[in-house]
């Protein structure tokens, strides 16, 4: 498979790109066991949460309900 074919295949796989984006934003390696356990439904749920968080920040400058310290603690607990 050539590089051009690989790029075309990646461009056509919109869910794969969404999965990669979600994992990257969460700081999870796509080849890790944690990433392999993430279901399609889980990817969609996380992507929706990221969109909602982004809208809140864009509208108000920051999401007032987001607890950064709790998020970091939960993220470290999952590792």
Tell me what you see in this structure.
The chain has 79 residues and is mainly α. The chain has one domain (14-78). The chain contains 5 helices and no strands. The relative contact order is 0.09. The mean pLDDT is 85.
Please count the helical segments. Answer: 5
How many structural domains?
1
What's the N-to-C terminus distance? 36 Å
Task: Indicate the low-confidence ranges by residue numbers.
Answer: none
The share of residues in helices is over 70%
| Portion in beta strands | under 5%
Compute the number of strand runs: 0
Nearest-angstrom radius of gyration?
Answer: 15 Å
- Derived from helix and strand composition plus strand pairing, the structural class reads mainly alpha
Could you give the order of the helices and strands?
A: HHHHH
Mean pLDDT: 85
Largest sheet at a glance? none
The rough form would be described as globular
Keywords:
79 residues; mainly alpha
Walk me through the topology.
Elements: H1 3-12, H2 14-26, H3 33-37, H4 40-60, H5 68-78
Summarize the structure.
The chain is an all-alpha fold and 79 residues long. The chain has helices at residues 3-12, 14-26, 33-37, 40-60, 68-78.
């Amino acid at each position: 498979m050539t590089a051009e074919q690989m790029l075309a295949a990646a461009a056509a796989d919109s869910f794969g790109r969404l999965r990669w984006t979600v994992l990257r934003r969460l700081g999870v390696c796509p080849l890790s066991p944690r990433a392999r356990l993430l279901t399609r439904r889980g990817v969609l749920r996380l992507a929706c949460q990221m969109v909602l968080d982004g809208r809140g920040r864009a509208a108000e400058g920051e999401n007032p309900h987001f607890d950064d310290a709790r998020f970091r603690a939960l993220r470290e607990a999952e590792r």
